[in-house]
Recover the amino acids of this structure.
């Protein structure tokens, strides 16, 4: 369901894929380690920081359009963000519900939706890496200047970002949760004769060790993601480090 309030302004689109931060729905893999309620609260902080960092407050603040692809599809995601303490999304921000069975299908449907809206290039990023700066979006579109696919790998073998210049079928038959998702996508792109640009690898937050990576990425002040920094402390998620234990 498209909740957008404005037609495309640019030829490029940058989308976050996000879930409603509900316990047992958001960050369930991390939730099996730290508890579902703390995991959802931490994820809510991710959304606050990513919204503050990436949202263009004026239409000409970025060379690309920006939006949120949300799950469940029927929710008022603008209200969700406001309820978390974010500034209301400006009218030029695109809001679209995710549809499809599985991540590959949802991403494929989003790329198809964006192409149908008239976008020439679309970059989609996960919301599990609140330490990453807005410059990632600029770098991704730069990668698409001379490549058909852009990819940002995660340390666990997946990817935090994917972008396409057209409706290339790179996600067809994509494996899930194998630790080889990025390799499989690159192999598929190569088989289709597509060039792949890769951004600097990073990490997403799915396991306890990732909490320590996140802390180290934000240290010493947490200024890059203040809501996340505060949540790590409020939820006491780094107690094992303070005891001297390492993941």
């Amino acid at each position: 369901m498209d909740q957008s309030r404005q037609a495309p302004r640019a030829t490029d689109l940058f989308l976050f894929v996000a879930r409603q931060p509900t316990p047992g729905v958001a960050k369930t893999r991390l939730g099996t380690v730290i508890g579902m309620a703390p995991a959802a609260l931490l994820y809510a902080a991710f959304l606050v920081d990513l919204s503050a960092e990436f949202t263009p407050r004026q239409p000409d603040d970025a060379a690309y359009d920006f939006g949120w692809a949300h799950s469940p599809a029927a929710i008022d995601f603008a209200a969700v963000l406001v309820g978390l303490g974010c500034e209301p999304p400006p009218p030029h921000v695109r809001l679209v519900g995710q549809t499809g069975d599985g991540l590959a299908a949802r991403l494929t449907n989003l790329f198809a939706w964006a192409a149908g809206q008239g976008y020439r290039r679309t970059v989609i990023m996960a919301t599990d890496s609140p330490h990453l700066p807005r410059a990632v979006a600029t770098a991704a579109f730069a990668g698409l200047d001379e490549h058909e696919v852009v990819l940002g790998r995660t340390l666990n073998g997946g990817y935090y970002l994917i972008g396409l210049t057209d409706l290339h079928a790179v996600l067809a038959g994509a494996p899930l949760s194998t630790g080889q998702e990025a390799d499989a996508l690159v192999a598929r792109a190569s088989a289709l004769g597509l060039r792949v640009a890769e951004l600097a690898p990073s990490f997403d937050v799915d396991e306890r060790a990732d909490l320590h990576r996140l802390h180290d990425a934000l240290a010493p002040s947490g200024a890059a993601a203040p809501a996340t920094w505060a949540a790590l402390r409020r939820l006491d998620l780094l107690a094992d480090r303070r005891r001297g234990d390492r993941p």
Summary: The first helix runs from residue 28 to 34. The beta strands are 12-19, 65-71, 94-97, 121-126, 149-153, 159-164, 196-198. The two ends are 41 Å apart (CA to CA).
